[in-house]
Amino acid sequence: MINQFPRRKSIFFQLDKKYVFGRAGHRRAVRAARTLLWVLSFGFFLTACRQPPEPVILDNILAVKEITVITRKNPWCYYLYRDQPMGFEYDLAKAFADYLGVQLKVRVVHRWDRMIPDLLDGKGDFIAACMAITPARQTRAAFSRSYLPIQQHIIANRRNLKIKGPEDLAGKTVHVTRGTSYHERLEALQAAGIEMAVVLHECLETTELIRMVAEETIDITMADNLVAMLAHRYYPQIVLAGPINDEEFLGWAVNPKANQLLERINTFLSIVQKNGEFDRIYKRYFTGIDQFDFVDLRAFHQEVKKTLPEYLPFIQLFAERDGFDWRLIAAQIYQESRYDPLAVSHKGAHGLMQINLNTAEHLGVIDVYDPCENIEAGIRHLKELFDFYNNALGKNRLFIALAAYNVGMGHILDARNIARQQHLDPDKWSSLKKTLPLLTRPEYYEKTKYGYCRGTEPIDYINKINIYYDILKYQGVAGKTD
């Protein structure tokens, strides 16, 4: 039988088109093979160096006791106020770092289209930036379980009420930031046949584009309902049209290979959504965002520009003396008197901070209508109340003091006693928000020392002060007046 397969050569390396045989040839072949393997190995090394770094795994995070969040600098993600880090996403990320037992490091990225690349390049461990989970993003990053529903809206000026939905964008120019979910949605609308011009900005925050709409520098932008309703406070001239898509959800993003980290994130989100911590963080920043009074907010913005500067030196002086943020006091004064130094209420309260005559006498006020005297006395009175409720912690103490300023210490005492009877903590504002309204009902107020009280008033009082306070913080009035 003829062997159809050629005989196997003992040496296969070829030089100058000839097979090399013998001992000397064998050595040359071995050296050449080693050289080739070295070249190939070096090539693989260079290729590996060009690959993105491996993701920081959970074990490494725990070992160095530090985790880096990639986020945006804006009113809902992360910002510094009086040198303190704040923001919904920051607080949630800080709670996650505490859950892991590590320090939180913040990396602010100014371009949306750089967030996922920075994550994949190992410049951060996870993204927490109110980022919508979209199909395009899911091809590049792994997302956590969702934690908030959102929906995109068209944002236009109040003078431009003809825009109602996506079809009204035909022939219009829409401004959004490159790399956002709004950019993705506009591309989808264009593909569906809606002919419009889309102007892409590289680094602008959504609130900046909303400001430009409010000032009529541009006609239209896009924002999700959470961002838009918060910005409504700052720019009451805007309107939310649309919506232009189905409901989406926010999530945190990690490197697709960081499976252990993703599991921990999902476990954490499940825990805080069940134990109430997530709701507490959410309410810290978004309470009342759906409460919008165009006339009231427009008037407030006007008075801040026109009248507040006249009284600002007194407010800043006495607020700093007693340890209060002057913006809080400015918000309280507007709620009390609309910055009218001659205001008199039906209850007999007088001046900018609405001091009654008994309190004025106690505080040694000579002229209750003198702005300097009135502001000094009002802030001193608030400080006395703040010091009195020293068992309350954090914002509970401030809110209870403000409520006492509004309805008096007697009614607050009654509300606190009812809280104890109902096994609620009398030093928490959340408890008094439940018991103060009970003082309008005979079965409760008839058993108290100080009787009937319009108990919803102090709740509304504090809610409005918080809205005005939030606006003043966002506007950065300090930069213009300090």
Radius of gyration: 32 Å
Classification by helices and strands: alpha/beta
Return the domain count: 4
| Largest sheet report | 6 strands, mixed
CATH architecture of the largest domain, please?
Orthogonal Bundle
Concise overview:
With 482 residues, the chain is an alpha/beta fold. Helix content is 50%, strand content 15%. The chain has helices spanning 22-50, 58-64, 88-100, 115-120, 135-138, 181-191, 206-214, 225-234, 259-275, 277-286, 294-306, 308-321, 326-337, 357-362, 371-388, 395-407, 409-421, 429-435, 442-445, 456-475, 478-481, and strands at residues 14-15, 18-19, 66-71, 79-81, 84-86, 103-108, 126-132, 142-143, 148-150, 152-157, 173-177, 197-201, 220-224, 238-241, 248-254, 349-350, 355-356.
Description:
- With 482 residues, the chain is of the alpha/beta class.
- The protein has helices spanning 22-50, 58-64, 88-100, 115-120, 135-138, 181-191, 206-214, 225-234, 259-275, 277-286, 294-306, 308-321, 326-337, 357-362, 371-388, 395-407, 409-421, 429-435, 442-445, 456-475, 478-481; strands at 14-15, 18-19, 66-71, 79-81, 84-86, 103-108, 126-132, 142-143, 148-150, 152-157, 173-177, 197-201, 220-224, 238-241, 248-254, 349-350, 355-356.
- The chain folds into 4 domains: 14-50; 58-148 and 251-286, D-Maltodextrin-Binding Protein, domain 2, CATH 3.40.190; 152-245, D-Maltodextrin-Binding Protein, domain 2 (3-Layer(aba) Sandwich), CATH 3.40.190.10; 297-481, Lysozyme.
- A hairpin with a 4-residue loop joins β16 (349-350) and β17 (355-356).
